[in-house]
Amino acid sequence: MTMFLLDGGPVAPDAPVTRTGGTPLAPAGTLWPACAACAAPLQFLAQIRLGDLPGHTTPAPGVLALFMCANRPGQCAQWSPTAGGNLALLLPDGGLEPVPAPDGVDRELLGLGAVRVAVPARTAPGTATILGRFGGSPDWLQCDETPSCPTCAQPMVFTVELAEGPDPVTAMNFGSGRAYVHSCTPCGRAALLWQC
After folding, report:
1. CA atoms within 13 A on the CB side of 76
2. What is the pTM of this model?
3. DSSP type of residue 62
4. How far is Cα 94 from Cα 27, in angstroms, rounded to an integer?
5. Do the beta carbons of residue 152 and residue 117 sit within 8 Å?
6. CB 28 within 8 Å of CB 95
């Protein structure tokens, strides 16, 4: 079953829910990640609780934390799952704490407005702002770019598709396209890429 991600209004910036923007949560001692190309802090995009995915009947297998370089749009290969201009972390679901923003960097430049999400697709209101979806198959804008897990070399499982969002203040920049998140839960790995 596919579930839409809907703009549900503001929540606390460090809420332990599926949301876009705000403050990332991670294990204690985690440093804010930097772009491998320009070395500047990555922008935090979203955290996705995998336990919110349809079909999961066991405790949540983890939380995805998604980051992308917003310092030099188009120059740090933000669209690539392997170039270092973005980062997808698969974290344990529990014991997560807010990640301190880097010294000298305004948190507002790194964050987006936090929102609540996850409504079954068949009951999504017609006027709701859709920010993406869980489950199903990726709706590729170009060709299939399913990444392989860097640990086991198997194709990663499609997990989440993200849209940019309608508000220019909080919109994620995917070149007017969509982002695709894949994960390999057994290996604890995740990948983010986008197409336009």
Report:
1. 24
2. 0.89
3. -
4. 8
5. no
6. yes
Residues forming beta bridges with residue 163, ordered by sequence position: 178
Alpha-carbon dihedral 19, 113, 65, 155, rounded to 10 degrees: 70
Q: What is the pLDDT along the chain (196 residues), one digit of tens a residue?
A: 677 777 777 788 888 888 888 889 999 999 999 999 999 999 999 998 887 665 544 445 789 999 999 888 889 999 999 999 999 999 998 899 999 988 766 655 556 666 655 556 555 556 667 788 887 899 999 999 999 999 999 999 999 999 987 777 677 889 899 999 999 989 999 999 999 9
Q: Record the tokens describing residue 167, joined without a space.
A: 């508000």
DSSP letters, 75-136, are TS-TT-SSSSSEEEEEE-SSSEEEPPPPTTS-HHHH--------EEGGG--TTS-EEEEESS
DSSP, res 160: E
Dist CA 148 CA 89 (whole Å): 15
